[in-house]
Amino acid sequence: MVTKTDGKESSIYLKGIERFIQEIWAEMVKDNWKTLRVRQLIPEELDVHYMMLYDYKSGKKTIPIQTLYKLLLLWKKYCRKTNKDVDRKWDEIYRSDFTLSSHKSHSISLPKSITPKLSYLLGWLCGDGHIEDRWNHYLIKISEKSTNQINFVLKPLVKELFNIDAPIFHIYEGGYGLQFGNKPIFRFLAQVLKIKVGKIPELVYKLDKINKKYFLAGIFDAEGDVSKTRNRITISQANLEFINQLIYLFKEFNINFRGPYKHKTNLGIWYTIRLEKQDEVLKFFDYIGIYHIDKLKRLKEKLIKIYENRNCNSSA
Length: 316
Fold this sequence. Notes:
Layout: E1 13-15, H1 18-30, H2 33-36, H3 41-46, H4 50-58, E2 63-64, H5 65-78, H6 83-94, E3 99-101, H7 116-128, E4 129-134, E5 137-144, H8 147-162, E6 168-172, E7 175-180, H9 183-192, H10 202-205, H11 209-223, E8 224-226, E9 233-237, H12 240-251, E10 258-265, E11 268-275, H13 278-287, H14 293-315
Antiparallel strand pairs: 1-2, 1-3, 4-5, 5-7, 6-7, 8-9, 9-11, 10-11
Helix pairs in contact: 1-5, 5-6, 7-11
């Protein structure tokens, strides 16, 4: 969340942790008032004006992440704390109810752990998202044709995870984009979770099966398709390595996609994998699931026909 080049205008700030700053401050000055020369030495070491410290303590001003960490190191130095003490205090702050902001952005929240809802969104972003940092302008975008999906699933999900009301734009004929520019969220996705569009992040391989399931569901909802005429489920992607990694991940659920199949048109080359056997389609629905409103409706229609055919065959 922090880089070496972060300065006053480019830092990420924490709000709602004044209680911890007050506790650290009180312990530091309790037995070291004269030694520390509070109004001089501590501000010098933190590289801030001494009045700014009082603003941090009162919550009047938000504190940059790197300044908070420097304060913890001074606490360690002058209160004879250990590295474990610092780690415990840092973890205590992390688990508290705080918000983050940059110099020009509104306060947002970040998930404290990987959850199924976050995994689903990460899958969607990896499959068909857009994450960009261009000259300190941050853009996170989710494109989707279904207004139902973007209004009733994706927009509320982003609001729940990050406490941000992302606007919807009409970006092309028949297509919409849920997009927002937010530095803390961008750094959380790109630097902490190392999310890249068209790639499976390393953290996915370490997830439990429930979170893997929702990650794969997010990818399918973004890049997958349920045929309107056949009992076929398809996932398409331009990146062959990405497709092969998906095949591997689905095999953990005993779901075996056929392919990849190469396609070439004037628009470029892409690859598809698919399920066509009824048993595989049923397993996909049972083990992974679909949370795309329109695609789920089509799949349920096919499942009804599959069960009807099986009942007819068994009665015959």
